[in-house]
Amino acid sequence: MKLLVIEDDKGIVDAVSAAFEFRWPGTVVVEALSGRKGLAMARSESPDVVILDLNLPDISGFKVLKEVREFSSVPLLILTVRSDSEDVMKGLELGADDYIIKPFDYLTLLARVKAVLRRTQMIPFKGTHDNVVNPRLTIDFVNQRVKVDDRPVKLTPVQYRLLALLAKNRDTVVTYGAIVEEVWGKEQVADTANIRSSISRLRRKLRDDPPQMILNRQGAGYVLKS
Fold it and tell me: What pLDDT is attached to residue 64?
């Protein structure tokens, strides 16, 4: 496995490298101490997973994340000293697969990386092409491509997992707890405010306003109508 760490604190980079060398033998760790170098290495190194600090010296980590998602769906975790839920949700909605708040335990980081790799390597409905979910929505579950009204829709990895989960269970309420576990992983705690924010952004991408496809069931969860 190749891990790209985009972090300007060399001490953290070295500690992450040591943790993976000790606990995950065979991992190749490449580093970038700035956002621009990180972007270049995300292209040139073809990493299997990226750890990205949001507080970089040259450009915003959010900008790095957004640009990475323009050309890659590589599993990506953000590092932040910010505990504000809006910053975390912004990172997740821009395409991060998970987040870690500094300071953090390196065993927890390793566990999160493994969990992200498991989730992102799971493709719902493998072997099924062009599944018509409803009259407006079509999903190619093999290539993870979405169309609304026969027009391609570009989703972040988190948004795609959220939509695929709802589509798999269409016409059935998916609970808040199930959404968090399947989309962000068992380690996360269900936060209905964060889920509502993600659903709102997904609806905008699907041009589902006012909501006709993804409906809320108050106190329970969400349902995708066929």
Answer: 95
